[in-house]
Amino acid sequence: MSGSLAGAAVPSPAAGTPALPGFPRPRARRRELGLLLAVAAAIAVGSLSLGLQRTGRPEPADPAALALFVGGLLVVHLALVASGRRVDEVLLPAVALLAGIGLLLMERLPQDLVVQRIGPWTLGLGELQLLWLGLAAVVATTTAVLLRSDRWLRLYKYTWAAAGLGLLALTFVFGSDVNGSRLTLQLGPIAGQPSELLKVILVVFFAAYLAENRVLLADARVRVLGPISVPPLPYLAPIGAMLAIALGIVVVQRDLGAALLFYAVFLGLLYLATGRRTDVVLGLLLFVAGFALLAALFPHVQQRIATWLDPWNDPLGDGYQLVQALHAFARGGLLGTGLGAGLPEIAGRPPVPAVHTDFPLAAIGEELGMTGVVAVLAAYLLVVGRGLRIAASSRDDFRALLAAGLALVVGVQAAVIAGGTLELIPLTGITLPFVSYGGSSLLANALVVGILLALSDAGPEPPPPPRPHRASIPRPGRRPETVP
Fold this sequence. Notes:
This protein is mostly helical. It has a domain at 150-460. The protein has helices at 30-55, 63-83, 91-108, 125-146, 151-155, 157-174, 194-212, 214-219, 233-252, 256-274, 277-297, 299-309, 320-332, 360-392, 397-421, 439-455; strands at residues 116-118, 121-123, 176-178, 181-187, 190-192, 222-225, 228-230. It has a three-stranded antiparallel sheet with strand order 3-4-5. The chain has a two-stranded antiparallel ribbon with strand order 1-2. It has a two-stranded antiparallel sheet with strand order 6-7. Helix 6 runs parallel beside helix 9. The chain is globular and about 70 Å long. 43% of the residues are buried.
């Protein structure tokens, strides 16, 4: 409801009386409530299964965590009800299912994988994941309720893009290396990966620029080779330069997953804006050429390709993570070993390194089987589908491209990490949205969900048609009275 007043009174169809001035009228969300109850039941069953494996008794693995998670879902639902906004009722339950699976997974893994002191408390992996999920719920709900106008997003597109690139450049200079990649920026006690926030900022920039120049990019073409034409360079240069800078920084930082994500989302939005398949084909050819150049120049890219083609060539070195992930899928089979019944730790550690960040799908495949993997991927498809549905019903080009871009961010990121884990593409170090451990990932994806919910607002509910007065309805068999 872009440009509308947040506190406008909406007449109540049921009671026929307006809401109090300055307060929105609460609106029931029965479909969302029913789906959230189903999600809560599924997570409760998973917690009972995990507790049964641990203690031999049918009890939740962590009753407090389960209660806080379900209670948090109820609070988010009530906040959306109280806001009175007519936003999508399927997106939140789909995301909640993924987040619940991620929480169960973090509770199941060794808690000393991540340990952090916050004041007098020492939190392990599962407790930290629950804390980040709580903060993510606050971000998503606040954005969904308070984001009423997108004007400030589209007007300051260059400012947002410059701020995101500046933050990424700071990471390149002052960041810390993790597994050979400079991804993390430490600001006092807070550490995070700016590339997670940059993906949202770039989608905002791409959507605003493409919406503003969509007609020129689609119709004002320049022929380069026979029937092949491209948009004029002056119109394509700003967005191309911004993309090149972002890709250049993340490639130098060895964050190939983020580079692939940015480029894939850009191509998707360019096609949605222009409707020309030629642009996508040329973009794919440029990607192949650029990837071949990177493979020739950077040894770590060559190593990734060699490991992808034959991880068994060095099963105890470069191919160790991928080999162990494939073994986990093989142990799980179709139905899995059961939540909590996977392979015990080897020398006190999980058999798959970085299972809580880069390889959660391998743990899901082992304990829930390929059935669980397919269910998780189906949940991502549902999130993407709802995002594209929001885009299709948007009122203008910017909102449509923004919703589609945010949906693509979630879908492409899930596809990239799933393809790498299953050895379909070279492995890249990005997180599985809503499932992997990581505060910056959860908060950035919560921002995506919040914006999508805000964009899906259908506006005030129209008042019911006026009912005719009983005296004005002629009775059967009688002629209506006429006024002389």
